[in-house]
Structures are given as C-alpha cells and as structure tokens.
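Lecture notes, unit on binding sites. The following record was shown on slide 14. It pairs a sequence with iron/sulfur cluster.
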Amino acid sequence: MMNGLYIHIPFCLKKCGYCDFVSYENRLSEGEQYVKALLSEMEQYKGTEVDTVYIGGGTPTALPPHLLIRILLGVKENFYILPGAEITVEANPGTCDGHYFQELKQAGVNRISLGVQSFVDEELKMLGRIHSAEEAKQAVKNAKAAGIENVSLDLMFSIPLQSKESFLYSIKEAIGLQPTHISSYSLIVCEGTPIEQAVSQGKLILPDEDEDRDFYALLVETLERAGYQRYEISNFAKTGKEARHNTKYWTRNPYIGLGAAAHSFWESRRFENPPCLSEYYAVCRGEKERVSEAITEKDAMAEFMFLGLRMTKQGISKQEFLQCFGVSIEEIYGEQLEKLCRLGLLECLGDAIRLTNRGIDVSNGVFCEFV
Ligand code: SF4
C-alpha cells in the first residue's frame, strides 16, 4: 500500500452560498504564516514515501503562486515523492490565469481539479461562485496550454433553478473540453448557509429525491456514452485516469493530512487537525494535541465495506477481506450480504461484491447495514 499526502488550504476569496467546508474568506493576509505552519508540520514526516499529493481546499489557488510553490518545494524537501506520482492542485477558475498554471507545471503539478460546478451563468450566480462559465472554459484551456493535460472538472446537480436541460448542457460543455475526469455530486444544503436560508424562506426550491435521481441517471448515461467510466458513485474517468489520490480514501490506503481540518489515516489511527487556524498553529508548535482515534477491528471491517462499495466498478474483494482480517466476509457480514443481494441492491460476481444500479440510488441505506 502506498501513502498519499493531502494538504488543506483553508482560504477562499468569497464563501459560496452552499459551502460549509473549512475555508475562510478575508484571511488571505495570513497566507505566509499558514504556509510556515504547514512547512513545520511536514517536518514530522521527513523521509516518508508518497505516490500521490493532493492540495485541496478551500481554494489553493487563492494563494499567490509563490506561496503555493513554496508548499510544493517543502513537499519535495520533506517527503520522498515516488517517480510517476500524481500531484494534484484544486483550482477555482476565478483565481488563476495561464501564468499561474505554468508556474504549477514547473513546480511538478501534473493534475488540476477545477471547481466548475455549472456552465450556466445564472446557476453559478445563484450558487455564489466567483467565476463565469466562460472563465471556467478558459481555465481548462490555460491548464492544458501550460502542459497539464490531466484535468478533472467538478459539476453539481440538484441545484435550485437547474432543469434537466440545463444540467445536460453543463455535462455536454464539460465533455466538449475533454477533461480526463469528472466528479459530480448533488448539492447538499447545509444548515446556516445562505442557500439553506433561501430554501427555508421559500425563495429557492430544491429538486425532490426523484428529480435528484433523474439528474444522476442523466449524468451517468451521458458520461458513459462519451467514454467516461463510472468507477466510484460520483466519479467518472477516461481509462487509466481514475483519481489515484482519492482512490486511497475508498480503499483504505494510508494518507497524511496536513493543514487546518485535515484528516489523516496513518499507522492504523485516524486523526484530524483543528479547523480553527489559531488552534492549528498551536498544534504545529506542539502546544496542542490533535484529535486522534485508534481504529478497532470492527471499525476497520465496516470501513472496508462502506468505503470499498463506493467503488462501483471494482466493488470489494472477498479475498482481500480475508487477507486483511483473517476471517471470511460471509462470517462477519453473511446476513447483510444475503439480504442486500436478495433485495437487488448488491451483486456478487465471483470474488467481487458490487452495488447494483438500484443499490447506488440508495447507497447510504446500504452502507448503514455495515455500521
Ligand atoms: S470555493 Fe469551494 S471551499 Fe471555497 S467557498 Fe466555494 S465551495 Fe467553499
């Protein structure tokens, strides 16, 4: 199993109307201090081998390029990056021009994940995004012109104002830009966000559950027809372009998370940094402990099931379960597997167990069976 490295950049130029991620607006002046903290945190892992690096946020590209480059140099100094490693930076189309991508390319970045969400300006505005559809298209072109061919786009569905036609338009616009990878999630309306308030006041209307599933079906059908294979519930890729870093989360490979609110799965423990910046700085100075939790075997088995089943194409392997835990999957989960197969929510294909299409539609319910 190879290690992954995640680095969280908790800054955004402006908070989107639906966002409850750990990201702060108007705090970019702290960028320098934050990067110093990240560099000191990296030293704790000196010499560790990694084969994926993912800088996410927030908006990593809200930082000026020289700070992001300093982080990447720090990664090279402190970690052993294996040849052929996947090095991804999340970018917001409203924060980076062609020059920015060129600098990233020179610093070794070989994959960009662009938060596009929609190619309809009206929808982008309603979501509170800071960029237009045209800027998103230009960002893809700029990344490719800089020599970063491996580009992933994020698209959102089940958003107020969206129709099947407008979602289909966004999917087709995305396909037209020929990204290697597309991630697509339905909008989760989180409490306390401006969109949640507008929905509760009746100013915005959300699609219902059936409409949500219709959006998803449209997504799967359109992307598969265009040669993007669904390999995870919300992720689609051209052959060989599956996100190697994110796959580590679903297959329980170890990863180190650096930065405020970052989670790690390391040496059989899960731990997380505090989301509050001043508390995070205190952790880096050794004045505060991270929240840490040892994983029991029971937890590990449950994780194996509900994370692994997200991988819709490969599913989970009975043999691998046996190798990991020294006991057969049937012995632990025989009853649940029998019931879910009988209901047509899971299917067994030789060694593999996978969600069926019906199972994907009610995947959270399926996962609950193993917790
Ligand atoms: S860009 Fe992403 S992290 Fe930043 S506010 Fe918008 S959704 Fe949140």
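Take-home: The pocket of iron/sulfur cluster is lined by residues 12, 15-16, 19, 21, 23, 57-59, 92, 115 (CB under 6 Å).
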